[in-house]
Amino acid sequence: MATKKEQKKMGLTTKIFIALIAGAIVGVIMHYYVPAGYVRDDIVVGGVFYVLGQGFLRLMQMLVVPLVFCSLVCGSSAIGDTKTLGRVGVKTIGFYLMTTAIAVTVATSLANLTNPGLGLDISNIEKGEATVAESTSFADTLLNIIPKNPIQGLAEGNMLQIILFAMIVGILLAKLGEQAETVSTFFAQFNDLMMEMTNMVMSVAPIGVFSLIAKTFTEIGFDAFVPMLKYMGTVFGGLVVQCCVVYMIFLKLFTGLNPIKFLKKFAPVMGFAFSTATSNATIPLSIETLDEKVGVSKRISSFTIPLGATINMDGTAIMQGVAVVFAAQAYGINLGIADYVTVIATATLASIGTAGVPGVGLITLSMVFASVGLPVEAIALIMGIDRILDMCRTAVNITGDAVCTTIVAHQDGSLDRDVFNAATPSK
């Protein structure tokens, strides 16, 4: 019986990867060999692919707020002791900010080696229309964490407000104990219900992944990539260094776990994040995978993963670091050491409170550009090919969340090494 379940579980993972590859192949074929027109563009791409892809994303987004809220209430209630919760929170936030600063440093260093913007003919690049983000002071960023109306925060999906309110509810439930047993039971059972709903939605993941990837490649093809190959290569190189070197060194140093085994177990989540390009939609799958395959207690992951999806955007920070050097070189603007320090600080702070949704990195990039006096119009140069990079950096973002969660769980004594060392378990 267990074998059949294991085959079923592995079957879904395999189907998602097959759907991802098949979607890319179908998209490329349609872009180059199917004539543009009503049937291809409106019926297939704008109709079937769009509805199935966005429909799947909406199903995942539907789960995020209730699942995150219930998980955090249960997580902080289980941790109980405010001193322990505070210690976990400080470690998590400190790790997230440190890795983001490292990510920007890696990106700017790599970009200064490859010089992606030198000798670029700007006229050959198809430009988009850049959106400028409103700059928010650090004081207001802190105040925005406190919800004026928690119901409104839940309705708008404001993750930082949801996290704070859920933590307060969970801590008070732990303090009240038996007096609030009915409410505690409700949240625990509702959390189980949301996990089951996640499994149900994930059963249609291959269809959604195929549609999202096929639509992207049908629209972009490879033509838009050619003049931007050096920029893309630099961003991709930075993402690989951050994911496979920086994170894995931290994992080995702080937990002693096998990095290759960790990446193998977490690969399905990375593939899912790549196809959806949204950190928020990956939250349920990350928590479940860390629990079942890595051995991280949901008591920890239900707190750190939603927090990471909100404030830990290392992949986005890498794109922003490379984009700054790229734009400066393309427009012939010299940046000094002080400018790079400013970029590192701004990109790190800009990642706090950034929504984990597709394309948001380009909007916050305008704040980074403004901090060192680069023209915001330069963002338009990279918009055409950003969708593919957005997918790659989302995979890195959620991997960083998972590594941090594993380290914090290990230090808290909430990591089951037997689960990690075992063969991939089944549901």
Describe this entry's structure for a reader:
There is one protein chain. This protein has 427 residues and is an all-alpha fold. The chain has 18 helices and no strands. It has helices spanning 2-33, 38-79, 82-114, 138-143, 150-156, 159-176, 181-202, 205-220, 229-255, 259-276, 279-294, 298-311, 314-330, 337-350, 360-371, 379-382, 386-412, 417-421. The longest helix has 42 residues, at 38-79. It is globular and about 70 Å long.
Question: Keywords for this structure?
Answer:
mainly alpha; disordered N terminus; 0% strand; 427 residues; 77% helix
List the helices and strands and how they pair.
Layout: H1 2-33, H2 38-79, H3 82-114, H4 138-143, H5 150-156, H6 159-176, H7 181-202, H8 205-220, H9 229-255, H10 259-276, H11 279-294, H12 298-311, H13 314-330, H14 337-350, H15 360-371, H16 379-382, H17 386-412, H18 417-421
Helix pairs in contact: 1-8, 1-10, 2-6, 2-7, 2-8, 2-11, 2-12, 3-9, 3-12, 3-13, 3-14, 3-17, 6-12, 9-13, 9-17, 10-11, 10-17, 11-12, 11-17, 12-17, 13-14, 13-15, 13-17, 14-15
How far apart the termini lie comes to 11 Å
Order of helices and strands: HHHHHHHHHHHHHHHHHH
Shape: globular
- Residue share in helix: over 70%
Mean pLDDT figure: 80
Strand content: under 5%
- The DSSP helix count reads 18
- Alpha carbon gyration radius: 22 Å
- DSSP, total strands: 0
User: Which residues sit in consecutive blocks of at least 5 with pLDDT less than 50?
Assistant: 1-10, 126-133
